[in-house]
Write a structure and sequence with these properties.
Keywords: Heme, Iron, Metal-binding, Transport. It comes from Novosphingobium pokkalii. Pfam families: Bac_globin. The structure is a single chain. This protein is mainly alpha-helical. It has one domain: Globin-like. It is built from 8 helices and no strands. Helix 7 packs antiparallel against helix 8. The radius of gyration is 15 Å and the shape is globular. It binds protoporphyrin IX containing FE. Protoporphyrin IX containing FE binds next to helix 4, helix 5, helix 7 and helix 8.
Length: 133
């Protein structure tokens, strides 16, 4: 009988450290967006109050990486990519999103560096995939 190792049975959500890590990454991400002029164009696309995003993004990320799917329960029939179609996302602003997210992940420094690296890579591909120009 094949015995799967404990590591292969864990989801990326668990390997990252669950909701606490995703909340910390999200808060750092929006702090950077609010404070670093390098992300001014990205910041300007968002509503004045980022509090709803600080609640929504960790909930999305949790389900996205194999944890509880609350975001999908709260947003039935919503697709994250098509939800972005009203925004004029170009390669510059998509790149700002991806860079701020990479920095936020690096600053929070999840213990599992492989999953942390993969998270940054895949989110960067998703963000650049949303760019239309
Ligand atoms: C992997 C990439 C991305 C993820 C996972 C993501 C995630 C999210 C989430 C969870 C929301 C809130 C939707 C809701 O729950 O109702 C949202 C909204 C939004 N996103 Fe993204 N996003 C990504 C990329 C981008 C990019 C590249 C841009 C712009 C360059 C962007 C700009 C926005 C804006 C402007 C909103 C509306 C927020 C507001 O009204 O304040 N997103 N995104």
């Amino acid at each position: 009988m094949m015995a799967a190792s404990a590591e292969t049975e864990l989801t990326p959500f668990e390997r990252l450290g669950g909701h606490a890590t995703l909340r910390a990454i999200t808060d750092r991400f929006y702090d950077l967006m609010e404070q670093d002029p390098a992300y001014a164009a990205l910041r300007a696309m968002h509503a004045a109050d980022l509090a709803p995003m600080r609640a929504s993004l960790p909930s999305f990320l949790a389900g996205w990486c194999g944890g509880p799917r609350d975001w999908w329960q709260d947003n039935p029939a919503k697709c994250m990519v098509s939800l972005h179609s009203p925004f004029a996302i170009d390669r510059d602003t998509a790149g700002q999103w991806a860079e701020a997210m990479r920095r936020a992940i690096a600053d929070v420094a999840p213990a599992d560096v492989d999953v942390a690296q993969a998270m940054g890579d895949v989110l960067e591909r998703m963000a650049l995939g949303m760019a239309r120009r």
